[in-house]
Structure formats: structure tokens, C-alpha cells
TetR/AcrR family transcriptional regulator
Amino acid sequence: MTTTGTTPQASGSRAGGYARGRRKREQILQAAISLFGEAGFHGTSLRDIAAAAGISHPGLLHHFPTKAAVLEALLEHRDEVDEADLEAELDQGTDFFAAMIHLVERNALRPAIVDLYTSVAAEATSPDHPAHAYFEQRYAATVARMLEELETRRDAGGLRPGLDLEASARSIVAIMDGMQLQWLLARDLPRAQRPDMAGALRAYLDLVLVPEDARAAD
């Protein structure tokens, strides 16, 4: 009797091929993170990325047919990691704004990612940049999320009186991104002398949020 389907050997071979493909893809993305961060999107070529990843140009094209596809994969991966970390903290009961501070603290341990994001975001202000729509949508979504969280906090009596909530939401985003730039510009300084990204965000939130114990006292 004959059977149809994949033999165990073929299945194992295919799984091994998938694993090698994933490793090669990650290798390419790691090389691109550094290059995009150093030279920007326009200053980096696919051949540069292939050389840094240790593969041939045709081999890179097998995984990413265009430079824009590489950039898209990098930005998506960054968002997936950040979103997963944030949601995990929220699921554990961490306050949203405390979780945002923790996110900034983690970014201080990932300079290559911060460099990539800051460099590409600056370039992407041009409407013809392949990441222009991504950043446009991302900033709109990020400000909207901050505004939603501030409104929730206000309704619970957790905001200072008289705040313009939209301006506050935009200020939080501006501090996070602006401090990343200042932090990168000071990269040659000893760690103790570099700007404290998380500290700057914490200081602003202290001006906006009413602490839990103060609300309980009222």
C-alpha cells in the first residue's frame, strides 16, 4: 500500500532549511541595523548589507528583494519586540507610564536600535522616503495611545489640574525621541555623563501625573 505525505527525512530536511533561512535573515537584519544607523537608509546599499552580513548580493536578494523590504522588516521587528515587552508588563499589572519608563531604560541597552530609529526617522520626513508613511502612522498611533492613557488617568483623578491633554501626549513622545537624539550625540562620553533618557521622561511625568498615594489621601 502506498501512502502520501512528507517522509520524516524530508520533513527534517525542510525544517533544517527553514531554520537556516531564519538565521540568514536575522544575520542580514543585524548587519542592516548597524549600517542604517551609521550611514542612514540612503547612504547604505544592498551590496553594503550583503558584505556586512557575509553573504553574496544574490543571496541577500533571495531574502529581501529591495532595500525598502529590509527597512520594513527592521521597523516591524522593532515594533513587535517593544509591543510584546510593553503588553507583558501591562498584563502583570504594571502602570502604563511606568512601563513606558522601563521601555526607555531597555532602549539604553540597545544603542544600535536607537541609532537606526533616530537616523531613519530624520530621513523619513521626506515624503518620498520609503518609511515616510510608516513614521507618519506610527506617530499618529503613539500620540493617540498616550492621549487615551492620559484621559483614563484624568478620569481616575490621577492628573494635575488644567492640563492640555493632547499637548501633554505630544510632549511625552517628543521627550522620548528627543532624548534619544541627545543620548546618541553623547555616545563618546562615559556612561555616567550621558543624558538620562528614562530620568528625563520620569521628571516630566512627575509634573503631569498625581502619585497614587496622593490620590488615596484625597
